Amino acid sequence: MNVLFVLSAVALSLLACRPGNTAASNAGTSACADDTAVVVGAARTDVYVPLLRGQRLALLSNHTGLVGNRHVLDVMLEQGLDVRVIFSPEHGFRGNADAGEHVASSVDEQTGIPIASLYDGKSPMPKRETMDMFDVIVIDLQDVGLRFYTYYVTMINLMDAAAVHGKQVVVLDRPNPNIMTVDGPILDMSLKSGVGRLPIPVVYGMTMGELAQMALGEGWLGEGRRVPLTVVPCQHYTRRTRYQLPVAPSPNLPNMLSIYLYPSTCFFEGTPVSLGRGTDWPFQVYGHPAMRGHGFSFTPRSRPGAKTPPCLDQECHGTDLRDLDPEAAIAQGINLEYVIDAYHDLDIGERFFTRFFDLLMGRRDVKQMIIDGRTAAEIKATWADDVARFKQQRQPYLLYEE
């Protein structure tokens, strides 16, 4: 399948279903019936079912693969599509495993379809016998647009496997709730890891479908491999849309404020400071038993999705961000003031940072800048050129208007 042809066809389809285009609605594009609501790719059965019928399919998805109140797997089976295997990412197919927790392969109880975990701690690449079960990989995951959020990493690894084994890839696109933001340094590829797979900023402002196109177009698959790729885009969606996720994408991103603060507070994962895992407010608070004078406290407890959180069962003193206006959280992009505040409060020098901090940041010099007393604004200015360059580089792959 010619990738350029596919992208052109997708672009035409997106234009045809703009609000108010009654010709498109009358032509039978069912998703055009509502001129205001965002329509996710998985809901556009009229587009992708004809492409997939008669093919043996694999589905990469999890609990976020919803079409209304139904799962995309059920929709595909109802349409008579032949799903042979399910691939699951971090947190598992049902989305309830801890961050980083290894999830074993299993069988979906409702359908009897085997589930091949891509987060089992063994290999991020499927076995040969699994790849031989299907012809096309369908990808439907709700991402949040951060370089260290692992769903896109799983997608890229699976695209790479598809290229090696001669399979096709179809991405059913979903909105990125952080699509309005591009911020952070481009990954130094010597720090490539499970929380950083591509040379992109921390917040890259692209959907999974757009990023899949960019990875292919820029030769970012292993050894510059190629794979036939089709993206089924969302309808009635722009880069200004404030899309409310219908379900938490992972256990510790329970609401939209946590998702908007994620670009700033996730860096605490590379420090001794708790960011609220094991509470009702993960990524919306931060603190440590030894921090002083903040007037707020919380105690992390073991719970589903956070079985052994940092500072377990210890009273942490810190800062409450829950009253921050969502638009203010969006506007700040990456705000290192929180990390800098905790660094000075704990006063333990370089021991404040673990190696994981560098992996999350994608650069080795940021922690030294914090140690040297640089402000958050001064540090952000060091990656301004990265952001400008990336915005230009990604332009050919964008599907949605500003």
List the topology elements.
Blueprint: H1 3-16, H2 22-26, H3 45-52, E1 56-61, E2 66-67, E3 70-71, H4 72-78, E4 82-88, E5 106-107, E6 114-117, H5 128-131, E7 136-140, H6 151-165, E8 168-172, H7 208-217, E9 229-232, H8 256-265, E10 285-288, E11 297-298, E12 316-320, H9 326-332, H10 337-346, H11 355-361, H12 366-371, H13 376-381, H14 384-394
Number of domains: 2
Class by alpha and beta content: alpha/beta
Q: Could you please say which CATH topology of the largest domain applies here?
A: Rossmann fold
Binned, the helix content reads: 25-40%
| Top-tier CATH class of the largest domain | Alpha Beta
Question: Number of helical runs?
Answer: 14
What is the arithmetic mean of pLDDT? 88
Order of H and E elements:
HHHEEEHEEEHEHEHEHEEEHHHHHH
Described by strand count, sense and barrel closure, the largest sheet is: 7 strands, mixed
Mind telling me which CATH architecture of the largest domain this is? 3-Layer(aba) Sandwich
Kindly state the number of beta strands: 12
Name the CATH superfamily classification of the largest domain.
Answer: Uncharacterised protein PF07075, DUF1343
Could you tell me the radius of gyration in angstroms? Answer: 21 Å
Strand composition percent: 5-15%
Main sheet: which strands, in order across? 5-6-4-1-7-8-9
The CA-CA distance between the termini, in Å, is 29 Å
Low-confidence stretches: 1-33, 95-102
Molecular shape: globular
